[in-house]
Design goal:
- This protein has one domain.
- It has ten helices and no strands.
- The chain has helices at residues 23-36, 38-45, 51-75, 80-91, 102-125, 127-149, 163-173, 177-182, 190-211, 215-254.
- Helix 2 crosses helix 9 (190-211), helix 3 packs across helix 6 and helix 9 crosses helix 10 (215-254).
- The chain is flat.
- 22% of the residues are buried.
């Protein structure tokens, strides 16, 4: 801050004085700053956000990104039906499928055209519900990870751990999906990959800043619960598969 200028005459900083902006303008400023200046954003602006505003902010930005991706597909005349037709053309080149009568494909195409558009429009219209569910699940997983790798300290600059605090963080850190939506015109889902990778890196960075831990520890907070769940699921499937094979073996032996 310049000591020669009285504080009352300094130009307002949109991150420090958010109440002077309208809600939509502030949302736009927050979205741009969170993507382009994450260190400043998570140090200065993020602590000022209320829980409700943070979740609404992440929801609106992510919903806008979902609508933008859908609009890009519409402009390019792509839909779920295009994916079905591409799969059909690929299957018809295989020896197992090329001798099927055309009536099967025609019937599937006739039945699937309307539900394809319904599914696409519904996915955008119902996006807030899927967003909130995703935030809750990811926040629960990070809460479990934080119990293993983050130690609560008597530091006013460190956020407290807990699912409500992580719901705020996960919601705000989801804004880089907007980058993926803007790049959705690129082929091979490159835009979606960039958006997902950017969001993951942003979440690591946000945990690092707000909880004053290393990036490696932040990575462990996010990944460890899902890795443990995958391991448990793999063990369960292995045991279940072994039981099924044992039953089948006993039935064949009795036969």
């Amino acid at each position: 801050m310049n000591d020669d200028i009285p504080p009352s005459h300094l130009p307002p900083d949109p991150l420090v004085q958010p109440l002077q902006n309208g809600w939509l303008k502030q949302l736009y400023i927050d979205a741009v700053q969170s993507i382009t200046e994450p260190r400043r954003f998570y140090t200065e602006r993020y602590p000022q956000m209320s829980q409700n505003y943070a979740i609404a902010f992440g929801l609106v930005v992510s919903w806008f990104a979902a609508g933008l991706k859908w609009l890009t597909r519409v402009v390019r005349h792509e839909s779920l039906m295009d994916g079905f037709l591409r799969i059909r053309d690929q299957l018809q080149q295989l020896p197992l499928w090329k001798d099927l009568p055309p009536s099967i494909w025609a019937q599937n195409q006739h039945v699937s055209v309307f539900p394809a558009w319904i599914a696409e429009v519904s996915s955008v219209a119902l996006f807030p519900f899927s967003f909130l569910i995703s935030v809750a699940i990811n926040s629960l997983a990070i809460t479990i990870g934080s119990a293993l790798f983050i130690r609560n300290r008597a530091d006013p600059t460190q956020d407290k751990t807990g699912i409500t605090h992580f719901m705020k963080l996960v919601s705000v850190a989801s804004t880089p999906v907007l980058v993926g939506a803007i790049l959705s015109f690129l082929p091979l889902s490159i835009g979606a990959f960039v958006g997902a990778l950017y969001s993951f890196c942003m979440l690591i960075f946000a945990i690092t800043i707000r909880y004053r831990v290393s990036k490696l520890r932040s990575f462990a907070v996010i990944v460890t619960p899902w890795a443990a769940l995958s391991l448990v699921g793999a063990c369960f499937l292995g045991i279940f598969g072994a039981m099924i094979l044992a039953v089948i073996g006993s039935l064949l032996g009795n036969a």
